[in-house]
Amino acid sequence: MEYFGKGRKLRMDIKQDLWSYLEQTDKPIVMYGMGNGADKILERLDELNIAIADFFASDGFVRGHSFHGKTVLSFSEIKEKYPDFIILLSFASSLDNMLDVFYSMNGEYEMYAPDVPVTGDGTFTLEYYNENKDKFDLARSLLADEASRHVFDNVIIYKLTGKICYLRECETLPSEALGILSPSKYEICVDAGAYNGDTAKQMIFDFPNLKKIYALEPDSRNFKKLSAYSEEECRVIPINAAAWNENTLLEFDASGNRNANFFSLNTKKTVNIPAKTIDSVCESKADYIKFDVEGAEKNALLGSKSTISSSSPDMLISVYHRNEDLFELPLLVHSLSPDSKLYLRKFKYVPAWDLNLYAVK
Questions:
Q1: Coil, helix or strand for 308?
Q2: Mapping DSSP to helix (H, G, I), strand (E, B) and coil, where does residue 2 land?
């Protein structure tokens, strides 16, 4: 495979992906951060028989605790212990102060942020890319502008190499991405994955003629906050349900974090929650739909067929939760709304989160 930049011009050959490189290196590998992301990376490293020499946290955040049987060190201690090393970044952030730390560290040391899916199995390897290259190419061909193709290319390069510089190269401000939409025409909106009401609040700020938001949120703790906000804002209609392809009950991760979903059920607490089609929620009438449903975007879209057909809403779809999202979701959206123009934008985040597909007419 080859690195490609704007206009699909060749940049350099990719001889191996990050995982293959880590299999071959003799340098000690240290991991920055702990938690769910670290566990996923460690699971993949274990499959490849790659050992982590040590874990570290930011200076000032070390409390003598341990992780996977090793005492967590400070970065200062790592530098004293190893003359040369590879850093694997294992946690996500969009905060400016943390991004500054990431990029500063990346400029001074050999650092990678391995790509692991938020939801689902598998790893984004060179083999995976080559197996699905035709689908990636077809999805890329549907994108409406050069900026979208630049984002698409850079995200793939990042996923294969773990090099975060490619993410920074393709970032867009939310205010700039808003220019893709037609805010004044949106009166009836659907917020699928409403969390605590933050995105509904942003819609109200951005869409001057908005009259109603159907806000779906499956997690009970988040829904309480959403409901409290709806008491202050009568245009928000809170619905304690997941967006799905049929009206049913689903087993749900009740951890209460923003990435809680139906697919990470190895948590201590799960509950059965209602799932609804967007067609049934809004009676197939909507001007704008936001899909950010933690890996359930495909099913949520399939449950919106009638609305998409009859109302032709503009849409925002998150395309970063699963390995296949980058090609599968653009292809699905195109099949459901072939006249829509598709744009891809990425907001500041490490790893490749906040990656959104816009479908507009």
A1: helix
A2: strand
- Residue 3 in this model has a pLDDT that exceeds 60: no
Is the domain covering 2-168 a CATH 3.40.50.10320 domain? no
Residue 333, token pair as written in the block: 């959206």
The pTM assigned to this predicted structure is 0.92
Q: Name every residue whose Cβ is closer than 8 Å to that of residue 116 and which is 6 or more positions away in sequence.
A: 37, 40, 41, 44, 123
Is the backbone peptide bond immediately before 218 cis, with ω within 30 degrees of 0? Answer: no
> What six digits make up the tokens of 318?
């998150």
Task: Report the relative pairing of strands 29-32 and 212-216 from DSSP bridges.
Answer: unpaired
Distances (CA, A) of 61 to 92, 112, 243: 16, 21, 38
| 156-195 confidence digits (pLDDT tens) | 999 999 999 999 999 999 999 999 999 999 999 999 999 9
3-state SS record for 60-91: CCCCCCEECCEECEEHHHHHHHCCCCEEEECC
Does this chain's domain 2-168 share its CATH topology with 174-318?
Answer: yes
Burial class (CB in 10 A: 0-12, 13-18, 19+), 61: exposed
Provide the percentage of residues in the chain whose pLDDT is more than 70: 92
Per-domain boundaries in the chain: 2-168, 174-318
Contacts of 162 (CB under 8 A, 6+ apart): 18, 88, 112, 113, 114, 115
Residue 64 is predicted with a pLDDT of 83
Identify the band that residue 93 occupies on the pLDDT scale cut at 50, 70 and 90: very high
Q: 248-253 and 355-360: which strand pairing?
A: unpaired
pLDDT at site 9: 45
Rounded to an integer, what is the distance from CA 160 to the centroid of its chain?
16
Task: Give 226's Cβ-side CA count (13 Å radius).
Answer: 28
Domain 174-318 has CATH 3.40.50.150: yes
Residue 180 contacts residue 168 (beta carbons within 8 Å): no
> How far apart (Å, rounded) are the C-alpha atoms in residues 326 and 310?
26
Residue 314: closest CA among 293, 286, 335: 286
